[in-house]
UniProtKB/TrEMBL annotation:
The chain crosses the membrane at residues 43-63, 70-89, 119-141, 153-171, 183-204. This is DUF998 domain-containing protein. InterPro entries: DUF998. It holds the Pfam family DUF998.
């Protein structure tokens, strides 16, 4: 479920299958499923599937008792569930129009950055904050306990790429000029997809064939 959430979170790659006036190097992903955009139902379906998988995975890992123990691991799983809830709200409350593309649309910033002119910006920010919390907490758990060893090297490398792209977005958003914010966001979200797939693999591996020492965390 965790890996599938990551795969479905990459539905934006379908933008390359059909013509669009949006420049992938400069447009935000939230513009793909803006109200009245062609093919928006495809992207919304991808986000809703992502949400359902993430929330279901969190429930399975926590109820009736946590599969993994320790504060960092439980925090990661709870954050995964919160990411799912935020993403489904994000999909169901899109931006109404795209400045410069839709006639009569006011020239306001749109996308995942915390510019709270629209509820969509808030839900997007919550989703990104939640997945970052999950990634950091799971990585801490991997280093502290030995659980999810795949996250210590491969996952940490991908997380580093995500952090760099996020800094790129946050810094460039406050500067004038063309800094390819669309490209930065696509690298960020693509990295999140890969990281979730790695985490899903790590969870399965820890439950099969890694021994009792890796199947449960201690608080130590």
């Amino acid at each position: 479920m965790v890996a599938l959430a990551g795969i479905c979170y990459s539905s934006w790659v379908l933008e390359f299958l059909w013509p669009s006036p949006l420049d992938p190097f400069r447009s935000f992903l939230s513009e793909l499923d803006a109200a009245h955009r062609p093919h928006r139902e495809v992207y919304v379906a991808g986000d809703i599937t992502t949400s359902c998988c993430a929330m279901l995975a969190a429930v399975v890992l926590l109820v009736p008792r946590p599969v993994f123990r320790g504060f960092p691991a439980i925090t990661a799983v709870v954050a995964l569930g919160t990411f799912g809830m935020s993403t489904i709200a994000d999909a169901l409350m899109p931006i109404e129009c795209i400045p410069g593309v839709d006639a009569g649309c006011p020239n306001e910033p749109s996308g995942i950055l915390p510019q709270l002119h629209h509820i969509h910006a808030l839900t997007s920010t919550l989703a990104v904050f939640s997945i970052f919390t999950a990634m950091i907490a799971a990585t801490v758990a991997a280093y502290r306990s030995g659980t999810w060893p795949e996250l210590r090297v491969v996952g940490s490398t991908v997380l580093g790429v995500i952090v760099v792209s996020t800094v790129w977005m946050l810094a460039a958003d406050n500067l004038s000029g063309d800094f390819r914010l669309g490209l930065a966001q696509r690298i960020q979200v693509g990295g999140m997809t890969v990281w979730l797939m790695i985490w899903g693999w790590a969870i399965v591996a820890s439950r099969h064939g890694r021994g009792a020492g890796h199947t449960r965390m201690s608080d130590g």
